[in-house]
Task: structure prediction
Amino acid sequence: MTDEILLSVKDLVKSYEGTSEVLNGISLDIHKGEVVVVLGPSGCGKSTLLRCMNGLEEYQSGSITLDGEKITKNGANMTALRQRIGMVFQSYELFPHLTIQDNITLAPVQVQKVPKEQAQAEAERLLERVGLLDKRTAYPRQLSGGQKQRVAIVRALAMHPEVMLFDEVTAALDPEMVREVLDVMLTLAEQGMTMVIVTHEMNFARAVADRIVFIDGGVIVEETDPETFFEHPSTERAKQFLKTFTFEKKA
Amino acid sequence: MSVDILLEYLPLFVQGALVTIKISLAGIILSLLVGLVCSYVQYYRVPVLRQIAKGYIELSRNTPMLVQLFFIYFGLPKIGLSWSREVCAVAALVFLGGSYMAEAMRSGLEAVDVIQTESAISLGMNRFQVMRFVVFPQAMAVALPAIAANVVFLIKETSVVSAIALADLMYVAKDLIGNDYNTSEALFMLVVFYLLILLPVSLLASYAERRIRYAGYGA
Amino acid sequence: MQDTGLSILFRGINFLRLLQGLWVTLQISLISVGLSFIFGTLFGMLMTVKNRFVQAFCWLYLNFIRIMPQLVLLFLVYFGVTRQWQISLSAWSSAIIVFTLWGTAEMGDLVRGAIVSIPNHQYESAAALGMTKQQIFRFVILPQTVRRLIAPSINLITRMIKTTSLVEIIGMVEVLKTGQQIIDANRMQYPTGALWVYGAVFVLYFLVCWPISTLAGRLERKWR
Result:
C-alpha cells in the first residue's frame, strides 16, 4: 500500500427519486494497493456507493474522482474511466450467448483493440490462475455459480483495471462455493491489487482488509483497521451489527 | 376431380405462388427493418419518436390488413400518393408487419436484464458496443420464435392482396372458380400450394422455438 | 369554402349505413367468438386426453386450420362445400362456420396451454391438504386456468373482428363493402371519396379493436 490516493469520494449524497437519502455525505479515500472492505446492514447504501464509484448511478452532490478525473454516470470520458475500474456483480452477469473465452476477450478486443491472439493468450493465462482453463470453450450455463463468479473476476481483470470493485460477490453462492471465490480475491489482494469489497463474510473481511469502513443510514459510522473493528468496535451501532453474526442459545 | 385440369392449372398456380412469395419476401424484410427501428426507438426511450412508434403500433395492430390495403391502394392516390399494385401490397404488408416485428423485438430487448447492460458498461463498452455485442444477440435469440411466427402470419396475410387484383395464389384460384367452374380443382391446388410454401416455414418456426425453449446456449 | 371531401361521410344516411355495415361485421364476430369459446374449451380439454388417435386428430385439425390463410378456409367452405355436396351456403353462414372452426382451434390451444401450464406441485400440494379430485379441480386448478385464459381470449376477440373483414371478398355487405358502395354512388360529387370513406372504416375498426386489445394488455400485465 502506498500513500498515493487512487479513488477519492468526497461528500457524496445520493437519493433515489422520492425516497429519503441513501448516501448522506460519504467521504472516503482509497489508496493505491489498499484493500477496503465496506460493511453494514442491508439497505445501508454500501452497494449504492460501489455503483456510484463505477458511474452506474447518478448522484446529487459531492464528487468521486479517479486520479483526479471525475466519475459521473453520463460523463464525457466514462468509457475510458470505466476501463480502469473493474467491477464484479453479485449475479455474475456473464454474457450467456458467449463462451467463457469470448466473455473474457470481448471487451479487450472490442474496447481496447487488443489483437485477438494476444487477448486469447491473456484469457488463458488468467483462467489457468483461477483453475478454469479447461472451461474456456464452455458456455456460462454449463458452469457452477462459483466457477461463473471466478470467470467474472477474470473478465474484469483482463481489462487490466487499476482498482476492482466487488459487490457482494458471494451472496448468491452455495456455501461450499464461497471459498473458491474468496481465495481468488485473497490472492489478488496479496498481489497488491487495489480493491473495494462489499461483503457479508466477516471472517473473510477480517483476513483481507487493510481498512474496514462501516456504513449505516447512509453515513460512515466507523472507519478503522479490522483488528480494532472486530475486537473493540467503538460505536454502539457497530456492536449491534456484529452481534447479528453471533449466535447464543437463549436461556 | 380431374388430373388433366390440375395439370393444366399447374403453371398458373406456379405464377401465383411466385407473386405470393415475392410480396411476402419484400414485405417481411422491410417489416423487420421497420420493427427494428421502432423497437430501438422504444428501447432507448427516444422522445417524440417513441410516441410516434407507439401510435403506429396501436393503429397497425388494431385494424385489419384488408382495410389498410384499401386505404393505401384506393384512398392515398386521392392525395397524390399513387403507387403500383405491387408497391401497395408490399406497403400494406409492411404497415401491418412492422408493428408485429416491433413488438417481438421489443419484448426480446426487454428480456435482457438491465444488469447485463451494466456489466458491459463497467467493462468500458460504449452504448453502441453494449447493443451490438451484448444486448442485441441475446434479444434476438429471445425474439426469434415470435419473429418466425410473424413470418408465417405475414405470408398468410398476403392472401388479401388478391382483393386489389394482384395475381397471387388466391387471385388465380378466385379467377378459375369464377370463369371455369372447376371449383374442386382450383381449391385443391390452392391448398396444396399454400401448404408447399407455409409448411416448411412453419416447421422451421417451431424448430426455432423448441431449440430456444429447451436448449439455450451451449447445447 | 372548398369541399374537403370529408362531408361525403355526412351526406344523407351515409354514416349510418357505415355503422350498419359495422354492425354486420360485429355480429359475425361476436357469434363466432361465442361459439369458439364453447367449442374451443371442449377442444382444449380434448387435446389433453392421452389417447393417440384423439391426439393425432387434434393435431391435424389444429395445424391445418392454423397453417391455412383464413381466406383460403373461407373459400373452401363457401365455394368448396357448395360444389362438393350441392349444399348452398350463404356467405353469412360460411363466415360463421369458418370463423368458428378457426376460433375453436385457437381457443382450444389456449385452453390446452392454460391447463398444462398449471405445475404438477399445485395438484400435489392440494392433494396433500386432503382435497378430493373434484375439490382440487374446482378450487385450485379452475381459478388459475381461467385467470390465465382471460387476457388471451379477449385478444382473440380483436383478432376475430379483424379477420371478419375478409367476408367482403366473398361478397358480403359489411362495413368495407358498404364503404365501397358509398364511394361508387358518390363518385361524381366526391372524387376523393375513397380517401375519406376508407379512412373512416379504418378509424371505425380501430375504435372497436383498440379498447379491447388495451384491456387485454392491461390484464396480461396485471396477472403475469
Summary: The helical segments of chain B are 3-43, 49-61, 65-75, 85-111, 114-122, 127-157, 169-180, 183-215. The mean pLDDT of chain B is 91.
